[in-house]
Amino acid sequence: MTSRLTEISLDCHDPDRLADFWTQALGWVVLHREPGLVEIGPDGRDDRELLDAVRAGPVPPTMFLAAVEEGKVVKNRMHLDLSPVDCSRDEEVERLLALGATRADVGQSGEESWVVLADPEGHELCVLRSLAPGHFSV
Predict the structure, then answer these.
(1) Which of 96, 99, 98 lies closest to 114 in space, CA to CA?
(2) Contact present, 98 and 120 (Cβ < 8 Å)
(3) Bridge partners for 118 per DSSP
(4) Which one, of 137, 133, 88, lies nearest residue 115 by Cα?
(5) What is the tens place of the pLDDT at every residue in 52-69?
(6) How far apart, in Å, do the first and last CA atoms of the chain sit?
(7) How far apart, in whole angstroms, are the C-alpha atoms of residue 10 and residue 63?
(8) From edge to edge, which strands make up the β-sheet containing 37-41?
(9) Residues near 80 by Cβ (< 8 Å), separated by ≥ 6?
(10) What is the mean pLDDT of residues 103-113?
(11) CB 22 within 8 A of CB 40
């Protein structure tokens, strides 16, 4: 038996603000909200259906945004990679910038096929090549 990746936790100052950014970025919804904690994820299943799906195989994880007092100090040791599915990489970068992301420099050379951004609280993320028809094929 193996484990399943079911949640990603992200410490932040303002869970509600980051939930707004990430739900728009990923097309997800708020699944649960309480003071200092917001869970976001794909819209959909009730708990019993989700449990059956998790036991059967990998499912998209949810994301917990948890309020903490301390600020982010250094580059993340782990980050999220996003692949646009219905537009070009550069169009997705512009959309994310309009949602509140910023460009981030983590030492890239400029020759990379991805773009490094940071969410509104500075957590790095990469926008990879587009998976949209006409941009990517197998």
Answers:
(1) 96
(2) no
(3) 102, 124
(4) 88
(5) 877 777 788 999 999 999
(6) 32
(7) 7
(8) 7-12, 62-67, 37-41, 29-34
(9) 8, 125, 126
(10) 92
(11) yes
Instruction: Identify the residue whose tokens are 């449990």.
Output: 51
- The pair of structure tokens assigned to 9 is 């936790």
Segment 32-43, tens digit of pLDDT: 999 999 999 998
Q: What CA–CA distance (Å, rounded) separates 66 from 88?
A: 32
Q: What number of CA atoms fall less than 13 Å from residue 130's CA on the CB side?
A: 13
Beta bridge partners of 40: 30, 63
User: What whole-number distance in Å separates Cα of residue 124 and Cα of residue 80?
Assistant: 7
Mean of pLDDT over the chain = 90
**Cα-atom radius of gyration of the chain, to the nearest Å?**
16
Could you give the CA distance from residue 98 to residue 92 in angstroms, rounded to a whole number? Answer: 10
Contact 128, 83 (CB under 8 A): yes
What is the DSSP track for 3-19?
----EEEEEES-HHHHH
The pTM for the full model equals 0.86
Of 9, 123, 15, the C-alpha closest to 69 is 15
Annotated domain spans of the chain: 7-67, 80-127
